[in-house]
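Good morning,

Both structures are done.
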Amino acid sequence: MNGTTGPFRSIASGVFSPIGQLWLDALTMTVVPLVFGLLANGVMSAAASGKASSAAGRSLFWFAACLTGACLTAALAAQSILAWWPVHGIEAVAGSVTMPTPAAAEWYRGIIPANPIKAAAETAIVPLVVFALFFGFAAARIEPVLSAGLRKLLDAIVQTMLIIVGWVLKVAPIGIFALAFGAGGRMGSGALGMLGQYIALISAICLLTTLLAYVVAVVAGRMSIMDFAKATAPAQAVAFGTQSSLACLPVMVAAAPRLGVSPASAGLILPLAVSLFRAASAGANVAVAIYLAHLHGVPLPWPLLLIGALIAVPVSLAAVGLPAQVSFFATIGPVCLAMGVPVELLPLLLAVETVPDIFRTVGNVTADLAVTRLAGDRAELDASASVIDSRNDAG
């Protein structure tokens, strides 16, 4: 029986592997223009929002700070967990795909792109992201008419890439099946254990980010943990049931008085947070890249971990309003490429993302409310607190 199964598996792999690789290449070809367009346009939009409102400016600051903390913490936690709980099936996958990784002592040499066009052609994500950030900040300071024209052009590029991604995703069942067949052929029954470990790891990282949101609200927001827990519980319940931060927005706005933030201030900060701030998702994206690195046997010295965590921050902020499937590739792919990690198994992981996505949404919503407490206008915070105290005294 094994004698007939071996040749059949070899022939099937020879047929399905090229199909899966072609589908993955079609998806990957959109990464560079999509990341550049999203980042540059996002920086220009963020700069405009910051100029328009001081509360929006404070929100953007806290978004960036908390995302950075979440990503760095996720990187350390994921490395620690996988050191204690090694990835299953690593013997079968390691060496199947190799990607160059910079030496630890030379990690800084590729940060500033001497040639941005060459960086884009080589899918060098780190210098590409740096150039996009410089481009966006500079474009926000040119004449308004020219800046508006650039934003339209960048938006057109992004929309075009999204259409291409939509075409590719329409045949996703074929591509994912082909990739899964190849992975199953290499790992055998270890594939099930690998997917189960992936779900457990990403869910744990999202729960850790949720816990960090409580710490931020208590320490930086000077709020009791019980009050914050009561304020966030309704939104967390909706997030658990819907897996949609947008669906939680009305409940989060209603929770503003319990946070000590006026509805007017929350009405400004929370829509921005739902659109831009995905702390649990950003941390989980870093963990996905680290998990794939361990699965493929890619070494991760601390400079690469730092680069991956820092790249995840602007990429997460730029992925505004993308569909879930598109966002999965557009936010994790650049982190993997920046760390020299193969991306061929990303579609397979997407197929089991339903459970981790629940914890992503709960963590995102909790972090949104924590940042609302921090970024709310201090005068409004004090006024709300005074009203609550006077009501308690009257009672």
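Second structure follows.
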Amino acid sequence: MKRTLFAPEHEAFRETVRTFLAKEVAPHYEQWTADGIVSREAWLAAGRQGLLGIAVPEEYGGGGAPDFRYGVVLAEEFTRVGAAGLAVGLHNDVIGPYLTGLATEEQKRRWLPGFCSGEIITAIAMTEPGAGSDLQGIRTTAEDKGDHFLLNGAKTFISNGILADLVVVVAKTTPEGGARGLSLLVVERGMEGFERGRNLEKIGQHAQDTAELFFHDVKVPRENLLGEPDSAFLHLVTNLPQERLAIAVAGIAAAEHLLELTTTYVKEREAFGRPISTFQHIRFEIAEMATECAVTRTFVDRCIEDHDRGELDAVHASMAKWWATELQKRVADRCLQLHGGYGYMKEFPVARAFTDGRVQTIYGGTTEIMKEIIGRSLLA
């Protein structure tokens, strides 16, 4: 089905992204994978190309285009080349809204120019060793000392954790407040007591630095409080739909790309003297995946349109997130199977997609949490 989502300017931007990926990412990606981290130069190159801070107002060095469809183009093109390590989507679509929507004028002028140029790489730290989706379980504390907060605790599974120059930390500022007693504090590289642990070894996305973070009596200046005190829960709830939609966008893009690769492969691969695409089972597998992708694409594109109109709610974002990522997981498994032994070889894109994409149903809120959000809305 013909997509009606994009205007000519989005397609022109797509060509810019493809050129960037071919020049600045593809030649270096294997080295980044071996190193377990992306070069900072890649971030600076993304900034020079205008791929960072697209929604940030021009006065702070951004693109001045608060149109989520540009983020969709980025997610689709990065997914097609398997460049999960360069977490531009996390930077733009997840952390960007906290800075543009909650930061004071002074904070914006201090952080946003570097955010847009690639000189400041960002991360958000919610997950802890004992607390994932349950915000009430957060144990990291920030004691109000007047002119600063004294931050103590630990975070884990933090994307961009090694490279990050600026980390938005979710911490408990009112212990008796539960999820309503949390605040957002911005911790900057070099603050005394802020330490990084291991660059964690994962089964996929090896070029993406994912780390443990530790805070030992870190004095976070009061001017680094992001938003209102004890309001992190509200801020998180407001921004999570976009994060989950961004993950859904990557999920359906990955499924479609894998289907495309596999359709080509089964036409070329022969068994018993003929292409395996002539076997009914193969045709049925391709037909099922194509149908599932088409249906999912229609729903996700509708969610994107709703989001750009300011109408996407948490329930539909959760639907898109869990469905698209579970589809990605199923398609990756089935496409690997149709590649036979070659699908298990690291040099084949389907193998990398199989391991890189597995986390999609976990981060940003697990499938189970998404279903709980949807179920509560229907049965409350």
